[in-house]
Amino acid sequence: MIRVLFADDHEMVRIGVSSYLTAQADIEVVAEAGDGEEAVTLALSHRPDIILMDLVMPKMDGIEATAAIRREWPEAKIIIVTSFLDDEKVYPALEAGATSYMLKTSRAGDIAKAIRDTHAGQSILEPEVAGKLMSRMHKKPPAEHEQLTARELEVLELMSRGMSNQEIGDALYISLKTVKVHVSNILSKLGVHDRTQAVIYAFKENLFPEDK
Fold first, then answer.
1. Where residue 192 sits, what CATH number does that domain have?
2. Which of 40, 47, 146, 209 has the highest count of CB atoms within 10 angstroms of its CB?
3. How far, CA to CA in Å, does 137 sit from each of 31, 91, 96, 133, 140?
4. Residue 191's pLDDT is what?
5. Residue 201 burial class via C-beta count within 10 angstroms: exposed 0-12, middle 13-18, buried 19 and up
6. What's the pTM?
7. What is the mean pLDDT of residues 144-160?
8. Per residue in 111-134, pLDDT tens?
9. pLDDT category, 90, cuts 50, 70, 90?
10. pLDDT-based confidence at 138, cuts 50/70/90?
11. Is residue 74 part of a domain?
12. Is 49:3 a contact under the CB 8 Å cutoff?
């Protein structure tokens, strides 16, 4: 038997899902929790094979409860069952230690299958969740120079041409003090220590091709 703890603050949801799962020949609901704190307490006392965890609950939300359980019991297998698909919920839940992520719009049979598959060592993700994760994994991190403002790029380009701060100020009709502020910001955003390193970075990234 696969021993399950179900945590959800809606009693009717718990009754419906628990009744369906209990009818399965290989699944037993050993405990139910109505809030996050109770979920942590019951999880650590019962040590179920699978924990079904809602995200939005009183006292402690599902993300906090998942993290708390995994801190005390790293081997816990937790399936998030929620209505939320937004990034602010998905990523923190998985980072907190959730093994699988299901939506409440899933069929009861899908949740039962997710319980069996997660128990067998698989990680089950809704197609929309898997797509979000793949997109996030393949998204190229922004380069340092993408943080520069349009004015800072202008200053960097003139620096690359060998101009002094005063010459840059004259060319852009800004004060010497303002130029120094821009230069300081450029060095900070590029993660370099001096003007020379900033210019080397600009050449390496081919930020200002001569034939543009």
1. 1.10.10.10
2. 40
3. 36, 12, 18, 6, 8
4. 87
5. buried
6. 0.61
7. 87
8. 899 999 989 888 777 666 665 555
9. confident
10. very low
11. yes
12. yes
Does some domain include residue 212? no
Q: CA 169, CA 172: separation in Å to the nearest integer? A: 5
Nearest in space to 6 (alpha carbons), one of 88, 78, 98, 92: 78
179 vs 196: CA distance, rounded Å: 16
E strand spans, the chain = 2-7, 27-33, 50-53, 78-82, 100-103
Contact 80, 98 (CB under 8 A): yes
Pair (58, 73) in one structural domain: yes
Q: Which of 212, 148, 141, 150 is nearest to 185 (CA)?
A: 148
| 3-state secondary structure (DSSP) of residue 99 | coil
Residue 22 sits in which domain range? 2-138
Q: Are residues 39 and 93 in the same domain?
A: yes
What's the mean pLDDT in 1-6?
Answer: 95
Mean pLDDT, range 7-15, rounded to an integer: 91
Summarize pLDDT for 18-43 with one digit per residue, the tens. Answer: 999 999 999 999 999 999 999 999 99
Contact indicator for 75, 99 with CB cutoff of 8 Å? no
pLDDT grade, residue 86 (50/70/90)? low
